[in-house]
Structures are given as C-alpha cells and as structure tokens.
C-alpha cells in the first residue's frame, strides 16, 4: 500500500503570532483547505498582496469577513 504525504502545515500557535499570513497559514486560520484559501484570494474575498512570487494576507484584513461564509461559498 502506498503512503500519502501530508502537507507541512503550520500549527495554529505558530500562525497566531504573525501579522502577515501565507495562503497555507490562512487555510489553518479559516479551518479550510489550501485550495479553498487560494480560491478565496483569487476571488478577492480577502485582500492580499504579493512580495515577489509570494502571496500574503494581512491579519487585520481577515477580521472583516466571516470564516464560515468564506469556506462554504468558495466554488
């Protein structure tokens, strides 16, 4: 039987201390998957910005939206 590798996601404790989050860290905070987090950013439901090739989200920009509605409504 082939083993699947789990993504190396940060723990919630590591994410709480940060001011800017990566899409993977955003997924941990929202309680959804990485793909859904990228869709949320692509649809501009949460504002984000780029630093070179990296996509970042400011923690203060996350406070406006509801976690439940974001994870449920992402197509």
Descriptive overview:
The chain is 44% helix and 13% strand. The chain has helices spanning 12-16, 23-30, 34-42, 59-62, 67-73; strands at residues 20-21, 49-51, 54-58. The radius of gyration is 13 Å and the shape is globular. The chain is of the alpha+beta class and 75 residues long. Helix 2 (23-30) packs across helix 3. It has five helices and three strands; from the N terminus they run αβααββαα. It has a single domain (12-73), classed as Orthogonal Bundle (Arc Repressor Mutant, subunit A), CATH 1.10.10. The longest helix is centred in the middle third of the chain and has 9 residues, at 34-42. Strand 2 and strand 3 form a beta hairpin.
> The CATH topology is what?
Arc Repressor Mutant, subunit A
Query: Can you tell me the number of structural domains?
Result: 1
Q: What would the average pLDDT be, to the nearest integer?
A: 80
What is the strand arrangement across the widest sheet?
Answer: 1-3-2
CATH architecture: Orthogonal Bundle
The topology string of helices and strands comes to HEHHEEHH
Number of helices: 5
Strand segment count: 3
From the N-terminal CA to the C-terminal CA, the straight-line distance is 33 Å
Structural class: alpha+beta
The CATH C-level class name:
Mainly Alpha
- Stretches with pLDDT under 50, minimum 5 residues: none
Level of helix content?
40-55%
Main sheet record? 3 strands, antiparallel
Shape estimate = globular
What's the quick description here?
The chain is α+β, with helices and mostly antiparallel strands. The protein is built from five helices and three strands.
């Amino acid at each position: 039987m082939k083993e699947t590798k789990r993504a190396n996601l940060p723990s919630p404790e590591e994410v709480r201390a940060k001011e800017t989050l990566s899409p993977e860290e955003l997924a941990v905070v929202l309680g959804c998957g990485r793909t859904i987090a990228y869709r949320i950013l692509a649809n501009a439901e949460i504002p984000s910005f780029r630093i070179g090739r990296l996509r970042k989200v400011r923690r203060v920009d996350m406070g406006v939206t509801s976690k439940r509605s974001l994870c449920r409504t992402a197509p």
